Amino acid sequence: MQIQVVKSKIHRVKVTGADLNYIGSITIDEALMEASNLVEGEKVSIVNINNGERLETYVIKGNRNSGEITLNGPAARKVQKGDIIIIIAYGILDFEEAKTFKPSLVFPNENDNSLT
Predict the structure, then answer these.
(1) Is the four-CA dihedral 67, 33, 86, 27 of positive or negative sign?
(2) Which of 14, 77, 82, 85 would you call most buried, defined as having the most Cβ atoms within 10 angstroms of its Cβ?
(3) Is 74 labelled a binding residue?
(4) Where is substrate bound in this sequence (predicted)?
């Protein structure tokens, strides 16, 4: 049997932009992507702490150490600049492997989205 588990999580990061006129996705600072073990194009769930919205989209790589977290396309209607969100990616593992799997969890500075 296989189950879906949390693979990666960026916990409580500040939205720096919302671009309605972009194709779609979430742009994430490359340093945050690496720290949380996310790859470009990966499906993620977004949870908005400020308004309770939940949505799914895919990751686009942003400039390294920029702190960028931009929701693009229709997702831009679900957030506002300054909102605090959680970004979660899931993986499918065998049941026994899932018992010992350790996800990549990142807790950035909420003021500037840095890793320090």
Answers:
(1) positive
(2) 85
(3) yes
(4) 57, 73-75
The CATH number of the domain holding residue 102 is 2.40.40.20
Look at residue 113 and tell me if it is in a domain.
no
Q: Measure the CA–CA gap between 83 and 12, rounded to whole angstroms.
A: 9
Q: Which domain holds residue 30?
A: 2-106
* Token output for 104: 């990549």
The length of the chain in residues reads 116
Q: Which residues contact 24 (CB under 8 A, 6 or more apart)?
A: 57, 58, 72, 73, 74, 75
Q: How many domains does the chain have?
A: 1
Q: What is the pLDDT of residues 56-65, one digit of tens each?
A: 999 999 999 9
| pLDDT class of 23 with cuts at 50, 70, 90 | confident
Q: What is the pTM of this model?
A: 0.96
Q: Is 57 annotated as a binding residue?
A: yes
Catalytic residue among 22, 45, 58, 104: 58
Question: What is the spatial distance between Cα 12 and Cα 52, in angstroms, rounded to a whole number?
Answer: 13
Tell me, what's the pLDDT at 100? 98
